[in-house]
């Protein structure tokens, strides 16, 4: 099957779907139809893993905010979508967002055993503006909150 092949960075550059990115907010819940196209970054490496649509199943994506709140316990995942040349693909993401003036950082419950915080407390709208000012630059956006 065409989309089962590993994709190359060149194909990724040429694709029309969603470019490589992480989701800024804590969690995205995503319903895919039966058209393939979603890929996530390999946890340790430069490759991409295909996320096949599973009937009745939801994809749960961890975003930047949850990684920061968990003090890097939960890792956000870079992902992208390649459109099918022959079929329209419909996906329904539900974004769980924060209020623009919400201040967030590693949760105190996560740090209560003396763990070192890896991020500072930041205002969500400041983080959001930084995130979207950088386009799809993958991992660099998290520098904004890094201590
Ligand atoms: O359409 C998809 O499967 C993913 C969409 C997505 O990554 C997003 O909306 O942030
Ligand atoms: Fe996304």
UniProtKB/TrEMBL annotation:
The cross-references to Gene3D superfamilies, in alphabetical order and at most eight, read: B-lactam Antibiotic, Isopenicillin N Synthase, Chain (2.60.120.330)
Give the source's domain of life in one word: Eukaryota
PROSITE patterns recorded: FE2OG_OXY
Q: Where is the Fe2OG dioxygenase domain?
A: 1-98
InterPro entries annotated for this entry? Answer: IPNS-like_FE2OG_OXY (IPR044861), IPNS-like_sf (IPR027443), Iron_ascorbate_oxido_reductase (IPR050231), Oxoglu/Fe-dep_dioxygenase_dom (IPR005123)
Query: Which is a Pfam family this sequence falls into?
Result: 2OG-FeII_Oxy
Q: What is this protein called?
A: Feruloyl CoA ortho-hydroxylase 2
Q: Which organism is it from?
A: Capsicum baccatum (Peruvian pepper)
């Amino acid at each position: 099957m065409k989309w089962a092949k590993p994709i190359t960075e060149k194909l990724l550059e040429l694709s029309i779907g969603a470019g490589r990115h992480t989701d800024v907010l804590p969690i995205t819940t995503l319903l895919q139809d039966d058209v393939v196209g979603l890929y996530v970054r390999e946890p340790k490496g430069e490759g991409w893993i295909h996320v096949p649509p599973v009937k009745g199943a939801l994809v749960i994506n961890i975003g930047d905010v949850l990684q920061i709140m968990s003090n890097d316990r939960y890792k956000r995942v870079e992902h992208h979508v390649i459109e099918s040349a022959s079929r329209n693909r419909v996906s329904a993401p539900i974004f769980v967002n924060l209020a623009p003036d919400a201040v967030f950082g590693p949760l105190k419950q996560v740090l209560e055993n003396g763990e070192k915080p890896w991020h500072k407390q930041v205002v969500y709208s400041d983080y959001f503006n930084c995130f979207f000012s950088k386009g799809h630059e993958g991992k660099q956006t998290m520098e904004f909150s890094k201590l």
